[in-house]
Amino acid sequence: MTPNVTTIEFCYQTASFTTGNCAGALVAATPATASGTSPTTEGTTLSGLADATTYYVELEATNSLGTVTYGGVVSFTNRHHRGLHRVRHLDHQDRSHPARHRQRQQ
User: What are the φ and ψ backbone dihedral angles of 60, each rounded to 5 degrees?
Assistant: First the structure.
């Protein structure tokens, strides 16, 4: 049996959005994949950000069956002069309850 591998990315943009509706840039998380059902800690570094600008970010985890789990929208205001910001989303878990999954619209 092939293990269920989940690809993990962060979607971010400057306009606010509701869970599952980010239309912004996708950036791979670190680590970029996970398997199993144990919680993991995910992060990424966003670069090229404008100073004094609010960004909205959401973790998107897509398993090998194409089911997308969203981590909830968080926001931050960039105050780094080099346009870098480190994003962490704690305790991502591949959940099997269908009400917690949405298919990403193509």
Answer: -125, 120
Per-residue pLDDT tens digits for 25-36: 999 998 888 887
Residue 49: inside a domain: yes
Contact 61, 67 (CB under 8 A): no
Count up the domains in the chain and report the number: 1
Q: Quick one: CA dihedral 35, 47, 51, 55, positive or negative? A: negative
* Residue 53 structural domain: 1-17+38-62+75-89
Q: How far apart are CA 51 and CA 78, in angstroms?
A: 5
What is the value of pTM for the model shown?
0.71
CB 19 within 8 A of CB 46: no
> Would residue 54 count as lying in a domain?
yes
Examine residue 67 and state whether it is found in any structural domain, yes or no.
no
Residue 100: C-alpha distances to residues 13, 35, 54, 86 (Å): 23, 18, 27, 26
Q: Where are the alpha helices (DSSP H) in the chain?
A: none
